[in-house]
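Task: fold both queries, return tokens.
Query 1:
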Amino acid sequence: MDDVEEIGLLMKAAMRESERRINDVLRPLDLTASQAEVLDMLDRYGPMSLSELGSLMVAEGGHPSRLVDRMVQAGLVSRRSAADDRRRLTLEPTERGRVLSAQARTAKEAFRSWVSSQLDGFDLGPARAFFATFLAETEMGETVRQRRDKAKIERAHGPDTKA
């Protein structure tokens, strides 16, 4: 196995382990990691179109329409006509979705604590640079950039600002 193959295998294994652990902490809430991500984005950044949501999600295909359809049917997300254009639909969490979003953020803290303990004392700068370089000029790299930019706006203006 050469270095490139091993790095690829390590990335895949880390992603699978992360997904398994996140799904484990979310299971008591009857949420998947993808559902929790949708709720978090809508709760954190306010109503948005399906296209806007898709641009912020790290998901297969980058378009979460089937996922959102199931969440609407489950009463976690609602669709409404946009105030500025009745032809455009916006998504927002229902009250139940907001409650589950907050519970999911709390549950995922167990995962974040585990990651922090695994990486205690490790300089994440080189790893961040590696992944940024690896994802440069890709759709997923752009998704990460958009999420990072939204998070910066949220930190600068507070969590109640819907940017």
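Query 1 returned. Query 2:
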Amino acid sequence: MSKRKLSAMRPSDGVVWITGASSGIGAAVALEMARRGWQVSISARSSDKLDALASQHDNIVSYACDVTDRKGMQKTAQKIETEMGSLAMIIANAGIYLPTNFPEFDVSIFDKSFDVNLTGAVNMIAAAYPFMIERKQGQIVLVSSVAGYNGLPTSAAYGATKAGLLNMGEALAVDLAQYGLSVNMVAPGFIDTPATQKNTFHMPALMDVTKAARAMVDGLEKNRTRITFPKRFTFWLRLMTFLPRQLYVRLLSR
């Protein structure tokens, strides 16, 4: 068991693998890490979008796959190890937002959200973990959301998955530190991406996706356990976790 201080992985340590990288913050992070010298493997279901992104930088290679396909993810991890090199960092970024609207209770929204956002992250970890644990080094990154801090309107399914990622990430960080593996949890606020551009409500402190990617990678380079941005927004949401729950529910219900 390793007792050394955990340090962030560097481009010289191997390859970073990013899911949900065909657009949005995943694509922006891929480009940012490639600019910083990383060999970047990117995955999503859309091979056309992945190939278009890979064509923008010599350091990026696309591997189309679906995070809900556990065996497919395992095959992809093996392929990256064979073709590109050692997996030094994985970024479980794939996610979907399906709003819950009542009085109808649509169970399928929960099923789909859990499969992609939560189980999809587990599938990625399971695929890369054998390689990392054998080398006793690696960085596991879980992209959650500030929606995981507190219950928010229309986010019963989405928020549950993001809260699950934060809890799972903290538990894994405790369990895996002795084996030389780091775990980072990323909790962004509203980021200007194709996904958020569909929202019809006001999004406080909406952040440019390129700036968000830069903030995220800066945090990963410092190996921060919890990375949030933009600070002026995420600070207040964190603070709201200390409100009495009855008061919080009453305020949000209005």
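Both queries returned. Flag for query 2: The helical segments are 24-35, 47-54, 70-83, 107-135, 156-176, 209-221, 231-240, 245-253.
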